Amino acid sequence: MTGPDLRRHPDRTSLAAAMADDVVALLRGTTSQPGGSRIVLTGGSISRDLHRAIAARGVGVDWAAVTVLWGDERFVPLDDDERNDGQAREDLLSHVPVGTVHRMPSPDDGVGLEAGAATYSGVVEELLAERSEPAFDLVMLGIGPDGHVASLFPGHTHPDALVVAEADSPKPPPARISLSMDLLCRASRVWFVAAGEEKAEAVRGSVHDDPPALPAGLARGVDETRWYLDEGAASLL
Questions:
Q1: Could you tell me which of 173, 72, 171, 84 has the C-alpha nearest to residue 116?
Q2: What are phi and psi of 10, to 5 degrees?
Q3: Per-residue confidence at 204, pLDDT binned at 50, 70, 90?
Q4: Backbone phi, then psi, for 212, in 5-degree steps?
Q5: Which of 104, 108, 211, 212 is deepest in the core (most CB within 10 A)?
Q6: How many CB atoms lie within 10 A of CB 118?
Q7: Mean pLDDT score across all residues of the chain
Q8: Longest dimension (CA), the chain
Q9: What pLDDT digit, counting tens, does each position of 165-199 carry?
Q10: Is residue 237 situated within a structural domain?
Q11: What's the pLDDT score for residue 159?
Q12: Is 117 domain-assigned?
């Protein structure tokens, strides 16, 4: 595995467009493999621009052969505006005929936080039984100003598991479900997306600190790690 591939763009619009072009090109190449293509979506404000751009470019993708999961989810009711899957459905999934979508559980499913994480772990285990490596073809991740990725926060520890429950997120809402760091790092490709100067310090630390001190610095793809950045997020590199 080589070092991270840094891709700078003038603004968030060009950033989202460039990354969407690459995501669609990847899907066109991976859906023909046995089992199709597995991708993990991210949340956050820039993800909405990204998902809309992917939807606009989705012609020619065999969407029926795509399996979609999430890196993390807020453990709130399904109709809550904070849900990543609701935003992704509005911006992307209602516009393309994805074959399989594995949303993370919510309280509406009649489970608690820990049980919800265990349920999603079962989903992942079934996928890994079909094809264990790479676990995913692509994981897309945002980054918080504190350097968190998915719902894995600095200073927080979790049990050794595929999917973990976060009951005390420093960023509301506090209850979340997240893929574990070990599982994220079993993806063939990890592609970060970040926009805005408020992300610059976390991006700098994640890219340059050795050994990594931030969760985002630990998230690495088996074959490739990319950072899609606008000028603000890249300003300290």
A1: 72
A2: -65, -35
A3: very high
A4: -60, 135
A5: 104
A6: 17
A7: 96
A8: 46
A9: 999 999 999 999 999 999 999 999 999 999 999 99
A10: no
A11: 85
A12: yes
Q: Which long-range contacts (CB under 8 A, 24 or more apart) does 76-80 make?
A: 76/106, 76/107, 76/173, 76/175, 77/106, 77/107, 77/108, 78/106, 78/108
Could you give the CA distance from residue 193 to residue 20 in angstroms, rounded to a whole number?
11
* 54-76: average pLDDT: 97
Domain with 130 in it: 5-230
Q: Looking at the domain assignment, is residue 236 inside a domain?
A: no
Closest CA to 39 of 158, 115, 141: 141
Alpha helix ranges (H) inside the chain: 12-30, 45-56, 84-88, 113-130, 181-184, 200-208, 215-218
Number of domains in the chain: 1
Report in angstroms the alpha-carbon separations of 128 from 2, 86, 137, 152. Answer: 25, 26, 12, 22
Q: Is residue 235 part of a domain?
A: no
What letter represents residue 218's amino acid? Answer: L
Separation between Cα atoms, residue 176 and residue 82, nearest integer Å = 11
Write out pLDDT tens, residues 125-159: 999 999 999 999 999 999 999 999 999 999 999 88
Return the CATH number at 27: 3.40.50.1360
SS (H, E, C) 78-118: CCCCCCHHHHHHHHHHCCCCCCEECCCCCHHHCCCHHHHHH
In degrees and rounded to multiples of 5, residue 205 shows phi and psi of -65, -40
pLDDT computed for residue 158 by the predictor: 87
pTM of this structure: 0.96
